[in-house]
Amino acid sequence: MKKKLFLFIALSASLQMFGQNPTVVFEGGNICPTDSWKLVFNDEFNGTTIDQSKWFTAFPYDPNGGVNCQVCRTHGSTQEIFLDQNVVESNGTLKLITRNDNPTWMSVTTPYSCGTIYSKWNFAFQYGSFVASCKMPAGAGFWPAFWLFGGIGTEIDVFEYGSKYPTNQHTTIHHWSGSTDVAQITNTVNTGVDLSQAFHIYRADWDPFYIRFYIDNNQVFQICRFLNTDGSFVTSCNLNPGVYEVQTAYPQGSPNNVNIIAGSGVGGPFNDNNLPASSVCPSQMEIDYIRVYQRTPQAGFTDLCAAESVTGPDDICDGNQHTYQFNGTNSTNPTWNLSSNLQQISSTSNSVTVQVVPSASGAAWVQANFAQADPCSQTQFTKNVWIGSPAKPTFSVAAKTPICPGNTTTTSVGAVSGAASYNWSFVPVGGSGGTTSGLVLTPSVNTCGIDAIHLGTYQIQVSTTNACGTSAITNSTNLVISNLPVCGPKSMIVTPEKEEYRVDKPVMFPNPANQNLTIIISDSEIKHYVISMYDVLGNKVLAKTQISGGTENHQIDLDISTLSNGMYIVMIENGKEVYQEKIMVNH
User: Fold this and answer.
1) How far apart are CA 399 and CA 380, in angstroms?
2) Is 0.85 surpassed by the pTM of this model?
3) Can you list the domains of the chain with their CATH numbers?
4) What confidence tens digit (pLDDT) does each residue in 205-240 have?
5) What is the Cα–Cα distance from 129 to 294, expressed in whole angstroms?
6) Do 166 and 196 contact (CB within 8 A), yes or no?
7) Phi and psi for 509 in degrees, rounded to 5?
8) Is residue 223 a contact partner of residue 211, using CB atoms and an 8 Å limit?
């Protein structure tokens, strides 16, 4: 990489004229990249109409970059007009048809109509391996070609063919300045085979320092960016230090992006300017595919083979139908295979619709299989999926109950396989005094913090949602918020400095109590008490006030015969402090 960088710097700093070509001083090194080719563009022509997102069907030379101009269809020729209807995609190939039908375009009439394709502006490339599988038109006088054009006056003819000489293939590189062909290098190969009788693969590998041309993967010609100073071609990847000529015809500069063109014209130098006889028309150049590879995909392009996959939902549900699709470059129809817990409902050219086998669950897979790896090397693509039902949560930690207002507690459910979300909520239990603002919930996935605000009884609910739907559950134990059951004995001394007013611990019996509850208060200094009883919900169920004391072991009898069985809190207040104790009532 360092030697290449030096070379680019030397080109800009050390150019001088040597004969007809500039020269460059090169420090020596390997000028041939070895990175593997990655597919970045292709058209397999397996549809029924040309893909207009990839191709123009004329030459886009109008001022707006479109094809609405005279030269867009004539390409400067007086012999042919390029028409959309001469571009036909069918039965897995593209046909570029030549007819002897005297077409007219913008007041120009020619003897022949022809077909061509020209890649859209966003499909232009600097460097790459450009490949086309083609069958040449039969009969003398046709001039098909597969070529690259654009950038900084660059033209690379991967092949040109004159059907008068059906075994010959011509390759050329041009350097244009406006309409002037400043420099060119041309080579002709006699293949010994009539190229109109079968498909052959034509390819040009364009790297920064070499362009190599191939037929059926056999190299037939190469052009190096450099010449030896005696004018001979450089043919090695390893250059010795020294001075080299730079071929003017070699693509120069950057960015130098070229578009892809394929078309069939008539006449031309490779046919000795002879035109096709009407007896051999119509005839066609047939293309199986066109592909472009790059060693490092340029901006805006990716390695298409690496991105191939079967796409569709990761999670599927019993009873529902789901569609999976192959996304990739192989445009033939795959064979779809499924795991035993899935069944196929239908399929199209690149997708399959499946349904879960009744009562099935767990791991499953969908697989696309291709008979041949074309254009990428992989033939099998698998998508792993999960089969399930709406995930039903179960409480693993119940909220502590009862609790006092202002206190907190937590609850949680076990993590649910395949769950996408948890939704926590609460509802007041009817008649308990609870309100919709009685709690503040702080969810954290499958755990929820609870802040108690208002007295009442509440149900805590949680629902989980996964790919198969939503399922909810309610905590089996209601959450009770009460002032008394858990708050315990409190010091409620209003004036702590007057400790003589503190209530001594009374005696309450029996516990559990039946019809009556007896309370003995031993403090003789306090003359008045307020005695109250509360149920576990904080409701006051009994009260006695203005009870006179003043004697040791003052006895108070409470009639509790009307109370229901259960736990109660007895609260004794003297105006300065409060004492409370739990009592069970059991009739």
Assistant:
1) 52
2) no
3) 2-294 (2.60.120.200), 309-388 (2.60.40.10), 395-481 (2.60.40.1080), 499-585 (2.60.40.3080)
4) 999 999 999 999 999 999 999 999 888 889 899 999
5) 6
6) yes
7) -160, 155
8) yes
